[in-house]
Design goal:
Distance between the termini: 19 Å
Radius of gyration: 15 Å
Largest sheet: 3 strands, antiparallel
Number of helices: 2
Order of helices and strands: HEEEEEEEH
Number of domains: 1
Number of strands: 7
Structural class: alpha+beta
Strand content: 25-35%
Helix content: 10-25%
Shape: elongated
Length: 77
Amino acid sequence: MTRTVKSEWEIACPKCSADHAIDICANIWVRLSADGTDPYEAEIQHHDWGDENDATCAACGHAGTVGDFRTEGRDSE
C-alpha cells in the first residue's frame, strides 16, 4: 500500500480532498544568527503541531486549523 498523508496522518483538505499539499504552521526550534535563523543548526531539532495549529491547502487555497483537515469521522469524500 502506498503511504500518503491521508493514510498516515488522517489529514486531507476538506474542500478539494488533496493530501499532498497541506502546509502547517508548526512551532520549531531555530538557531539565531546575525544572518537570520536556521532550523538545521539548532541543537534541539524538535518541532510540534496539533489540531489547533493553522493549516492551508496549497492545491486549492482552503485554510483552517489542522483539526479542520482531519479526515477521521468525516463523511466519505
